[in-house]
Amino acid sequence: MNSLSLTINRQHVTAAHNQSILEAATNAGIEIPTLCFHDSLHETGSCWMCIVEIKGKNRFVPACHTLVSEGMEIETDNETLNSMRRQSLEIIIQEHSGDCMGPCELSCPAGCDIPDFIAAISVNNNRKAITIIKDTIPLPGILGRICPAPCEEECRRHGIDTPVSICALKRFAADKDSERSDRFVPEITRKTGKRVAIIGSGPAGLSAAYFLLRNGDAVTVFESGAQPGGMMRYGIPRFRLPEAVIESDIATLLAMGVEFRFNTTFGIEITAATLKKEYDALFLAVGAQVASRMNIPGEDQPGVISGIEFLRRAACGEQQNPGTHILVTGGGDTAIDAARTALRLGASIVTILYRRSKNEMPANRAEIEEALAEGITLIEHAAPTNIRTVNGALEITALTMRSGEPDNSGRRTPIPVEGSEFTLTADTIISAIGQQIDPSAGICAGIDVGQNGKLRVNPETLQSETSWIFAGGDCVTGTDIAIRAVAQGKRAAHAINLFLQGKILTSTEASFNSSYGARDEAPLAFYEGKTPKKKVAMPELPVESRSKSFMEVALGYTEDSAREEALRCLQCRCNAINDCRLRELASRYNPFYNAEKHDHQGFYKAETADISMEREKCVDCGICVRMLEELDRDMDFDSALMTESCPTGAISLTSR
User: Fold this and answer.
1) Which of 312, 372, 363, 315 is nearest to 340 (CA)?
2) Among 186, 374, 442, 459, whose CB has the most other CB atoms within 10 angstroms?
């Protein structure tokens, strides 16, 4: 008898007498997970990931070296087997340490592949860099200028000197792409025939449009203003974000086929009911564009204006004469932008009042320093209590504050100091203490409105109780940074695509990640051989040239300086991240949503001319040892085969 019959997962299978269960299953197109198995080597069954159940005999055996027999009934996937695999993985993972993803990309809300795009810039492959960036970030020119860079805060280079200028490099790649006649535009391979309406053209709306277009859906973006961009266009001054950069990023969406309809307000010109007749899904991305009130007497007097209105008028080129003495209240980006804009509109004295310390200001740290360098005065621990007009001038009364106990944000609560009142005069007072959500869009769409006007949707899928309507960005999260709005747009597009296909809505699955820990928790030996190298400074417009000019302050890297800065990247992410068998199995059976951190029992890394070996990533599967022992001694050592056979990235090619 040349063959025998058996059943695997209720499927009839024919196999040779000398075949293992794993071979028989593989030949029948049935997958059994493996970690320590390699088809050119003798089996050991040491990892027990390929364990299967022999039905009727209550036996659990490794499929890689258990031979088939006549009439055998095998089950490869059930809760008992998966529980045993999870237990095996937990033991294996405890012996594994290292960074799957770099801390920079783990901290990027949009999940940008930072190490790879920086690596591309380091070898002058700017086309590859922008291709990688635009896989997750559709507005790189804009984000490269305005993002507060949470990625840089987590950069492991902190352990040597200063973080890599990730945002500046993102901007460089975007700017180089904008100079090309053949700009990168994602390929759209199919058309779904589905139509999606998006309300709002800020970062969430444009990002959702980008990913929906890439999927093949038709997208119309409705904007109440005359031009796209939302607060990116009307709330960020041109010396930080030139209009040409906004147009450049949006040009990609136009090339992909987006349709814009301007001067169209949701709830007035269009409603959910009218859109339902033409569109298969609706995404609300209306942002948070209502200025918060100071709630003090006199704030409605002439000469008092909100920060977002002041910036909107400046962005639209409306004539403004704020006077010579300007006072700004608040500590966020809007306050800093308004103060710097006032200087450029002719003010000679600009003062910011903030009720906490400079270090507690939520504004971008670099922008705060730029404002101070330009001559703006910051009065810390000061809260306004009253505004009045005296002899044609505005007077603002403020109290000195002291720091109390930490609040929910972790910052100390400001407490008034009795008898500390003081008064300042100004020609214009700009109130920039925050922004709120206008709930009218949610009400019009029939979406429940929660605390502070936030629209209530499923936080994972962004779907409302009305199944075809979704919402995301600031109108759901509250005022936040643009990169998180981009992430919300991407999440919404993922969920909308599932909805349009009639599938169950799920959030994007998280992959397992091992980590050395926070930026300063890598083993000291990790930094051996890595010499300090000063960050390449971003060229800037001289301070003395800024006061009357809206020219962009940061001038951008040259080819040479971008490459020099890119070469500072430590390339923390694992070389095997895209084909690591351990990570794939851990993501399947142990779906950790946070990076798993393990102690380092002595970091060890050895390198030859061809390969690098990192002991802490090794899980003792034995493949490399058996390969050296069992393969033909006369054949040349194959570095590529050795690295490709490693299931964890412990062995990798030296050259990247």
Assistant:
1) 372
2) 442
Residues in the chain: 656
Question: Stretch 25-40: mean pLDDT, rounded?
Answer: 90
Of 313, 217, 312, 298, the C-alpha closest to 258 is: 217
Contacts 24+ apart (CB under 8 A), 176-182: 176/126, 176/130, 177/126, 177/127, 177/130, 178/141, 178/245, 178/248
| Averaged pLDDT, 277-302 | 94
Nearest to 442 by CA among 219, 287, 269: 287
Here the tokens at position 496 are 């909308």
Read off the pLDDT of residues 454-470 as tens digits, 9 standing for 90 and up.
999 999 999 999 999 99
Collapse the DSSP code of 463 into the 3-class scheme (helix H, G, I; strand E, B; otherwise coil) and give the result. strand
CATH 3.50.50.60 fits 195-288+437-500, yes or no: yes
Return the closest-CA partner of residue 290 out of 307, 274, 276, 304.
Answer: 307
**C-alpha R_g of the chain:** 29
Q: What's the pLDDT at 44? A: 67
Residues near 264 by Cβ (< 8 Å), separated by ≥ 6? 222, 223, 224, 270
pLDDT in tens, 214-231: 999 999 999 999 999 999
What secondary structure letter does DSSP report for 193?
Answer: -
Give me the half-sphere count of Cα atoms (radius 13 Å) on the Cβ side of residue 626.
17
Residue with tokens 């909107």: 312
Question: What does the pLDDT average to over 38-48?
Answer: 75
Mean pLDDT across the chain: 91
Helix, strand counts (H, E) of the chain: 22, 26
Q: How far is C-alpha 423 from the chain's CA centre?
A: 44
Which tokens sit at 575? 């070389």
pLDDT tens profile 90-117:
888 887 888 889 999 999 999 999 999 9
The alpha-helical segments, DSSP class H, found in 230-296 are: 231-234, 243-256, 272-276
CATH number for the 290-436 domain, one of 3.40.930.10, 3.40.50.2300, 1.10.760.10, 3.50.50.60? 3.50.50.60
Give me the mean pLDDT over the 62-79 stretch: 93
Among 178, 116, 191, smallest CA distance to 142 is for: 178
Question: Quick one: CATH architecture of 4-94?
Answer: Roll (3.10)
Q: Say how far apart CA 469 and CA 271 lie, in whole Å.
A: 12
3-state secondary structure of 629: helix
Instruction: Spell out the SS3 assignment of 528-549.
Output: CCCCCCCCCCCCECCHHHCCCC
Q: Give the whole-angstrom CA distance, residue 41 versus residue 630.
A: 7
Q: What proportion of the chain, given as a percentage, has pLDDT over 90?
A: 71
Do domains 195-288+437-500 and 290-436 share one topology? The answer is yes
Nearest to 196 by CA among 214, 221, 215: 221
List, for residues 298-349, the tens digit of each pLDDT value.
Answer: 999 999 999 999 999 999 988 888 999 999 999 999 999 999 999 999 999 9
Task: Provide mean pLDDT across the span 40-48.
Answer: 74
Provide the terminal-to-terminal Cα distance of the chain, rounded to the nearest Å.
Answer: 52
Give residue limits of the domains in the chain: 4-94, 103-184+533-566, 195-288+437-500, 290-436, 600-653
DSSP secondary structure string for all residues of 316-337: TT------SEEEEE--SHHHHH
Percent of the chain with pLDDT over 70: 95
Do 269 and 444 meet the contact criterion of CB atoms below 8 Å apart?
Answer: no
Chain centroid to CA 479: how far?
16
